[in-house]
Amino acid sequence: xxxxxxxxxxxxxxxxxxxxxxxxxxxxxxxxxxxxxxxxxxxxxxxxxxxxxxxxxxxxxxxxxxxxxxxxxxxxxxxxxxxxxxxxxxxxxxxxxxxxxxxxxxxxxxxxxxxxxxxxxxxxxxxxxxxxxxxxxxxxxxxxxxxxxxxxxxxxxxxxxxxxxxxxxxxxxxxxxxxxxxxxxxxxxxxxxxxxxxxxxxxxxxxxxxxxxxxxxxxxxxxxxxxxxxxxxxxxxxxxxxxxxxxxxxxxxxxxxxxxxxxxxxxxxxxxxxxxxxxxxxxxxxxxxxxxxxxxxxxxxxxxxxxxxxxxxxxxxxxxxxxxxxxxxxxxxxxxxx
Length: 338
Ligand code: KG4
Ligand code: ZN
What we know:
Elements: E1 8-13, E2 18-25, E3 29-37, H1 39-42, H2 50-72, E4 81-87, H3 91-108, E5 112-116, H4 117-128, E6 136-141, E7 146-153, E8 156-162, H5 168-178, H6 185-193, H7 217-232, H8 239-265, E9 269-273, H9 280-291, E10 297-298, H10 302-305, H11 310-321
Parallel strand pairs: 1-4, 4-5, 6-9, 9-10
Antiparallel strand pairs: 1-2, 2-3, 6-7, 7-8
The chain binds 5'-O-[(R)-(carboxyoxy)(hydroxy)phosphoryl]adenosine and zinc ion (ZN).
């Protein structure tokens, strides 16, 4: 059924609350993509409980791997390598997936490949949009990351800029908590902002400087000071306008740094990944801005946006063809950076 030269990679993902295994062929052909979600066990606690997550990963990992093999219609012996997320994430969960991957690779005498979860999220775009031709720019914006990357080839990227303090999603979450709007902050800020106008002038750090880095902590302080001043003067808080003005400042910073890179690197397209990429105002404004440069904007299909193992197998494939294998001594790294 498979050509001899086909490369079959198993990916394993267990960094948060999904236990996932997948098989891809030659990088981006997804033969199976099995995800066991633990959300029902965590919901009543209002968030992921690490201890429960580790135990559920242990329970699910072997059945999920077997299902991924069965769905792909292959035997373990046909795998060319086994890839697993080794960070960032919850250490207990990471260890379960890593150990399973190492054991399988060792038993098969095939390469073991440790994959950065964030790189996985980026490769989800290439699975969804097979026609993306490098060079491309990628903006990864989540609760833990704000990274601007340049892909010269699919397997080769360079980090142009990253946040110097808070991640974009973290800023949304902190401001939402400060304004008592709830969690996660992104969606509630977006919803609140839709009822207001971006009339308050908050800072857009670094956009006029010779850097692709981001910084959101000054913005956070500016919002907090604004609110305190309003409270001291005994004025009613214009929460919708504050949310809209804050959101616009984040969006302007993201777009300004990205457009600087567009001018410098002349990419064929731009891809967005991470939870903040769900922000519709950001998507619309960025899309409009990129149209001026005739550039399409891509994001992954929904089932590849959330945690899955197909993206880990895809990222693992590009490490595999570059000979970038990992030693079996590779440890989990909860704070791994790109
Ligand atoms: O990538 P993700 O699901 O998880 C990790 O951080 O790994 O990203 C979650 C982040 C949270 O900070 C959340 O507030 C933010 O994405 N987010 C949004 C929106 N939806 C989620 N931020 C802005 N606008 C949104 N609509
Ligand atoms: Zn993730």
